[in-house]
Specification:
36% of the residues lie in helices and 15% in strands. The longest helix is centred in the N-terminal third of the chain and has 22 residues, at 2-23. It is globular and about 55 Å long. It has a single domain, classed as Alpha-Beta Complex (Inosine-uridine Nucleoside N-ribohydrolase, Chain A). It has 13 helices and 11 strands. Strand 4, helix 6 and strand 5 (201-205) form a beta-alpha-beta unit. It is an alpha/beta fold. It holds the Pfam family IU_nuc_hydro. GO terms for molecular function: purine nucleosidase activity. InterPro entries: Inosine/uridine_hydrolase_dom (IPR001910), IUNH (IPR023186), Ribo_hydro-like (IPR036452).
Length: 379
């Protein structure tokens, strides 16, 4: 009996130890803490990621520390307005704060951009915020289809201070989803370099490693908008994952998936705005409601799926990634992935995602975008 009792006790102790190490129930798993650093928009890729992240937090699978906004797709003021309405629409405004960050790139103004285009940069013509005038007051802002936020205010703390303070308070625990230009992150590292070893990882939507760019023939938009910031951040000694155009160009929203979100059995405030903003494409005419063969990129949303489970990436490569910062040159903002460490500045070896499990991803995508709102977040 004594031998049996000792065996029982040994098994019990081993079971407790395994559970403590994460081998037990899912309740013991560590919930990822995330900063969403974004050039926010209402319901294109950034806005969709905001919805998905809030729903994952409601499931206890994610902890969104806050949303830091930077100019990119839109000028900062418009991006902040859209982010405020987004969290209010979701009913999470008291739990997910919005922080205003950098309004301009370090060294990439409109005159410089014009020189690049004249030098033969080419591309799809999308310049993000530079496609329109900078809003000077609230009167210049455009409302979401369901209006502006009515009671949600931007946080008093700047986005840079928010990043610094959050990382310091949660050392080695915070992942930054960098889904816009990298100005906020570069500024945070410049001002407080002590945070660099405290960041758990950065997951980017950015770059075009082995494919052509989009804004220019050589550069992807997010890293092109502020190449100097992008170069600084990718060179930081932090674990980094790149979700570049290489993979996002292969994961396209088609009409079948669009219809599941835009016309669900139980519409929500989110699905209504999704339909109004995505149904007719970027040109307002040739979209899902009029052209069954139309497809649309959903770039940033892949980063969230990868964070949730890296197995969404069906193939990756290890590369030493760098960004060219050559203001005025045609290849300004170009990303390069070296198989071996090149001569010059020390680069970080990072994971570059090449292909995705599209079918599995779109099941997650549709599920999270069609869940009931408002979202009830756990304490």
């Amino acid at each position: 009996m004594k031998i049996q009792r000792r065996i029982f006790l040994a098994v019990a102790v081993l079971s407790v130890a395994v559970s403590a190490c994460g081998g037990g129930s899912s309740s013991s798993a560590v919930v990822p803490k995330v900063i969403i650093d974004s050039d926010y928009n209402t319901m294109s890729d950034d806005g969709q990621l905001g919805v998905m992240a809030a729903q994952l937090q409601a499931q206890g699978k994610l902890k969104v520390m806050g949303i830091s906004v930077v100019s990119g797709n839109q000028w900062l003021k418009q991006g902040v307005a859209d982010a405020l309405k987004s969290v209010e629409r979701l009913g999470v405004e008291d739990r997910i704060g919005v922080y205003a960050g950098a309004n301009h790139a370090f060294n990439h103004d409109f005159a410089t951009i014009q020189r690049e285009l004249a030098a033969g940069a080419g591309g799809d013509g999308y310049l993000g915020a530079w496609n329109g005038p900078e809003p000077l007051s609230d009167a210049d802002l455009k409302p979401s289809p369901d209006g502006f936020a009515t009671h949600t205010k931007v946080q008093a703390k700047s986005a840079v201070d928010f990043i610094v303070d959050t990382v310091k308070a949660n050392p080695k625990e915070v992942t930054i989803l960098a889904i816009g230009p990298l100005t906020n992150i570069a500024m945070a590292a410049r001002r407080n370099p002590e945070i660099v070893p405290l960041i758990k990882q950065i997951i980017y939507m950015g770059g075009a490693v082995d494919v052509a760019g989009n804004t220019t023939k050589l550069a992807e938009f997010n890293w092109w908008f502020d190449p100097e910031a992008a170069q600084e951040v990718v060179r930081l000694p932090i674990p980094q994952v790149v979700v570049p155009l290489d993979v996002t160009d292969t994961v396209l929203l088609d009409k079948t998936v669009y219809d599941r979100i835009a016309h669900p059995a139980k519409p929500t405030a989110v699905t209504d705005v999704f339909q109004k903003l995505n149904g007719y494409g970027f040109d307002g005419k040739n979209g899902f409601e009029t052209n069954p063969s139309y497809t649309q990129n959903i770039w940033d949303t892949l980063t969230l799926a990868y964070l949730l489970d890296p197995a969404y990436a069906t193939s990756t490569v290890q590369r030493y990634v760098d960004v060219l910062a050559k203001p005025g040159a045609a290849d300004n903002g170009r990303s390069v992935g070296y198989a071996e460490q090149p001569a010059g500045p020390a680069l970080q070896k990072m994971t570059v995602v090449k292909t995705f499990d599209n079918k599995r991803f779109f099941e997650l995508y549709v599920d999270l975008l069609t869940r009931p709102v408002p979202v009830t977040l756990a304490p």
